[in-house]
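step: validate -> pass
step: tokenize input -> pass
step: predict -> running
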Amino acid sequence: MPAYAERGVSAPPEVAYGTAADPARRSAWLPAQLRQTTARPVDGGDELQARWVAPDGPWSAVLRVYPAQAGGATLRLELDADLPHEQLVRIADETLVGLVGAVTDNLNAG
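step: predict -> pass
step: emit ->
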């Protein structure tokens, strides 16, 4: 059963999505099992989506980025792996904390 986590970030959705999809930044936030994979855009209509699938295992992630008030974004992660659900929920939450940090660093660098 997949685990879900959601966080807000003070960055436009395009910046949050671009940071998430940037191969140079994936080690800052993606679980190690997915770092060797490339983000594949997913057609999500009005939302920005990307998917990562581990080539040699049961790990996968889908990130959805939605506009939020005041020009920010909401990040929603679906993470799936062959792990106990409680552990997977913790990893999903830690993963989004890492992504929020990477987005913040990206904004501060510019």
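step: describe -> DSSP finds two helices and five strands in the chain.
step: cleanup -> pass
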